[in-house]
Design brief:
Elements lengths: L2 E4 L2 E3 L8 E4 L14 E3 L2 E3 L3 E3 L8 H9 L5 E3 L10 H10 L2 H11 L6 H13 L5 E4 L1 H14 L3 E5 L17 H7 L4 E6 L2 H10 L3 E4 L9 H5 L5 H19 L5 E4 L5 H9 L4 E4 L1 H4 L9 E2 L15 E2 L6 H6 L11 H12 L4 H4 L3 E4 L9 H6 L6
Parallel strand pairs: 6-13, 7-8, 8-9, 9-10, 10-11, 11-12, 12-13
Antiparallel strand pairs: 1-2, 3-16, 4-5, 14-15
Helix pairs in contact: 1-4, 4-5, 7-9, 10-13
Length: about 375
């Protein structure tokens, strides 16, 4: 497998969302009658689109609104929500900073220590609204934060790093034992991020309940440029979905795949499901919501890294309410609103009655799918050419 890139050196060809298209089947289904639900642990979730754990996207108010609409929003326990009593004031500073001072300001803001009492308080704020509380932590703090989060009533715990592996080597700090951690947690554990078959299989064997897939594709992420690491999301999703299916055949335990990042439009989201995803996680699409704390600005979790930032602050604008972005009606023509409606319509057009059937959709390599016949859109910078 692969092509020669030099003497004695081969490389595998991988694919992103813009290079593929989905092929309709023999039947079509009324979009209102397809089932878009997915499961994690013992819970069934109506909306298969998660809001990512970024400070410009999710605060407690956003998480509550997302929960009321049937979805999940992940609160970042490493961010401003747990470092500051009044995170709104801090975010205001980030939003108003110039591009030149943005990175340095963000780095200084995130140097303030995390207050453990704020972890409990934020989770309790979400739980009081009667919606699921989902939080994330880096592996080094997962054991301590997981204990605090469970006591506060968290529903799902996410362990997330730029690149995660079941065997992390370090002499400076204690590495997280995923098997022991998953056994100790009484709530589902999502782990990420991962892009390879072998790592996915090992993490699933360790006991995780879902896997985040994607390294560097996010709109505000610069990991691929800074570190040169990453696999395009179509191939990464397909490879890890194959690991999920292998693990299921071996153990009888189904571990959902969550494609994380790289999706700009409803079409990208539909392609992620066709490649094998059970759910998707997006940031920039939700950063555009009126309810998002970033007021139209978006920055990644690795942006404030003191030594080597792997993200930047970007302006995505505010285009509508969270409800409009999820369910419409859409007021823009670029595919960034009514994401659930787009998924339902795509599933109906493909003849997929549920997510599992969507994963069986025929996929073709079609690099012209974004440009064929779109000369007027490209010239006028509207629709797909915006």
């Amino acid at each position: 497998m692969g092509m020669w890139i030099g003497r004695g050196r081969k490389a595998r060809r991988c694919y992103g969302f813009d290079e593929i298209a989905l092929v309709p089947g023999l039947s079509t289904i009324n979009p209102n009658e397809v089932d878009t639900k997915w499961r994690i642990g013992e819970s069934e979730v109506e909306v298969p689109i998660l809001a990512s754990a970024m400070d410009g996207v999710v605060d407690t108010k956003f998480a509550i609104e997302m929960g009321k609409l049937g979805g999940l929003a992940v609160l970042n326990l490493e961010g401003v929500q747990t470092r500051y009593e009044n995170p709104e004031e801090v975010i205001e500073k980030i939003v108003n900073a110039s591009a030149q001072e943005g990175t340095e300001l963000v780095q200084s803001i995130y140097r303030k220590p995390i207050k453990e009492e704020l972890i409990s308080r934020r989770i309790e704020e979400i739980k009081k609204a009667g919606v699921p509380a989902v939080v994330s932590s880096i592996p080094q703090r997962a054991e301590r934060f997981g204990e605090i989060a469970q006591e506060a009533g968290v529903d799902i715990f996410v362990v997330q790093a730029t690149v995660i592996s079941p065997r992390h080597v370090s002499s400076e700090y204690k590495s997280l034992d995923f098997e022991n951690f998953c056994e100790s947690m009484k709530v589902p554990v999502i782990a990420g991020n991962c892009v390879t078959y072998e790592t996915a299989v090992e993490l699933m064997k360790a006991g995780i309940d879902a896997l985040l897939v994607g390294i560097g594709p996010g709109a505000s992420c610069t990991t691929r440029g800074v570190l040169g690491i990453g696999i395009p999301q179509v191939t990464a999703t397909a490879d890890t979905a194959a690991a999920r299916d292998f693990h299921y055949k071996q153990s009888g335990r189904y571990v959902p795949i969550i494609t994380d990042g790289g999706m700009v439009t409803g079409g990208d989201i539909c392609k992620a499901f066709a490649c094998g995803a059970d759910a998707v996680m997006v940031g920039s699409a939700f950063a555009r919501a009126k309810e998002a704390p970033g007021k139209g600005y978006h920055w990644g979790m690795a942006t404030p890294d003191v030594n080597l930032p792997r993200g930047t602050r970007i302006h995505v604008g505010t285009t509508g309410s969270l409800r409009e972005i999820l369910f419409g009606p859409a007021s823009v023509d670029d595919g960034s609103q009514n994401l659930v409606g787009a998924l339902r319509t795509s599933m109906g057009s493909l003849g997929a009655g549920n997510i599992r059937e969507m994963q069986l959709t025929e996929i073709i390599i079609a690099p012209s799918i974004q440009t064929e016949g779109k000369v007027f859109q490209a010239a006028q910078r509207v629709g797909m050419a915006r």
